[in-house]
Design brief:
Number of strands: 11
Strand content: 15-25%
Bound molecules: pyridoxal-5'-phosphate
Catalytic activity: L-histidinol phosphate + 2-oxoglutarate = 3-(imidazol-4-yl)-2-oxopropyl phosphate + L-glutamate
Structural class: alpha/beta
EC number: 2.6.1.9
Protein name: Histidinol-phosphate aminotransferase
CATH architecture of the largest domain: 3-Layer(aba) Sandwich
Shape: globular
Keywords: Amino-acid biosynthesis, Aminotransferase, Histidine biosynthesis, Pyridoxal phosphate, Transferase
Organism: Keratinibaculum paraultunense
Length: 343
């Protein structure tokens, strides 16, 4: 199957000037009149490095991957959109398990693709053989695997994803936004498969959602295509700077991951004590079902915000794993609401 769009294949990538200079007068940039005192590392009057070179170097070290196999940008959200921009023609099919991250469907609509969701099994288990069969029948351009899956927390293992890759020509995009809270990243296989793209982010495990840094890891051929559709200065200098700093102190993140895993276990065990259906999670959140109507609104009256869902997922909720105090407050409020329902 030919994946890349013809009009994209013929684009010559926009290349900003990267020559060394003594005096820079090539890009109509202004003087550094604001924030001139924040240090030489961050020159806010100059356009950012369009390739996010330093950031990609640090990501490369973090993942043990060649920086040439990485594209960085404004969150994995931008990465999802870039994949569609490069590969989706009107009417192409995009396949995914459902429920899953809603942005796949939203971007499918924006790019006039047809989104097809395969229902997960009982307990939201995702059956790779069903996915492979469906892919053979409908020949999707792209298959999205959210792993671990948002909102269910379900994790597919490497062998299942490799089985999928060995049985399809479709582009397989594995969204690993939460993989640090689990294990089984597909990053190590990017050179083994022509059709594998892995998406990652600093928004969750690194706790840096505000700076909007996400990135894609894939083989050189796909990376070259993505670079053609990416806008030249997509990631601002402040985000690049903060991202580099964080990656250089990644021990902090590893420590935080352990903390979240501990709290996830605590929260899971506490939820299990209630008449609630709780699903095991590999992310920094827990998915559960309660028959109490409008549970989210009742919690909100007590100042607590959780995620609710509509339609097929009415009565299902997703709560983020907080710190111990936040989790205790959530459990306390939940207990009050449930006791109130029974009285
Ligand atoms: C949170 C999340 C992201 C991250 O998006 P960013 O744009 O990087 O902040 C990506 N995919 C999934 C499934 C998510 O839940």
């Amino acid at each position: 199957m030919k994946l890349v769009k013809e009009n994209i294949e013929n684009i010559n990538k926009y290349e900003p000037n990267k020559k060394p200079y003594r005096i820079k007068l090539d890009a109509n940039e202004g003087e550094n009149i604001f924030f001139s005192d924040i240090g030489d590392e961050l020159k806010l009057n100059l356009y950012p490095d369009g390739d996010s070179s330093l950031l990609r170097d640090e990501i490369g070290k973090y993942l043990n991957v060649d920086p040439n196999n990485i594209v960085a940008g404004n969150g994995s959200s931008e990465m999802i959109e870039l994949v569609m921009k490069a590969f989706i023609d009107k009417g192409d099919i995009i396949l995914s398990f459902i429920p899953t991250f809603s942005m796949y469907q939203i971007f499918s609509q924006i790019y006039s693709a047809k989104f097809i969701g395969i229902n997960s099994n009982e307990n939201f288990v995702q059956d790779v053989d069903v996915l492979i069969e469906e892919a053979k029948n409908i020949k999707p351009k792209i298959i999205f695997i959210c792993n671990p899956n948002n909102p269910t927390g379900y994790l597919m293992n490497k062998y299942e994803i490799k089985k999928l890759l060995n049985n399809t020509d479709s582009l397989v995009v594995v969204d690993e936004a939460y993989i640090e809270f689990a294990q089984g990243s597909m990053v190590e296989y990017i050179s083994q498969y022509e059709n594998l793209i892995v998406l990652r982010t600093l928004s969750k495990a690194f706790g840096l959602a505000a700076i909007r840094v996400g990135y894609m890891v894939s083989n050189k051929h796909i990376i070259d295509i993505i670079n053609k559709v990416k806008s030249p200065y997509n990631l601002n200098s402040i985000s690049q700077y903060v991202g580099v700093k964080a990656l250089r102190e990644k021990e902090k993140m590893f420590q935080y991951i352990e903390e979240v895993k501990k709290e996830r276990k605590y929260l899971y065990n506490e939820l299990k004590k209630f008449p609630i259906e709780v699903y095991p999670s590999n992310g920094n959140f827990i998915f559960f079902k309660s028959e109490v109507s409008k549970l989210d609104e009742k919690l909100n009256e007590k100042g607590i915000l959780i995620r609710s869902f509509s339609k097929d997922l009415e009565n299902y909720y997703r709560v983020t794993v907080g710190n111990r105090w936040e989790n205790e407050e959530f459990i306390k409020s939940l207990k009050e609401i449930l006791e109130n329902e029974n009285s």
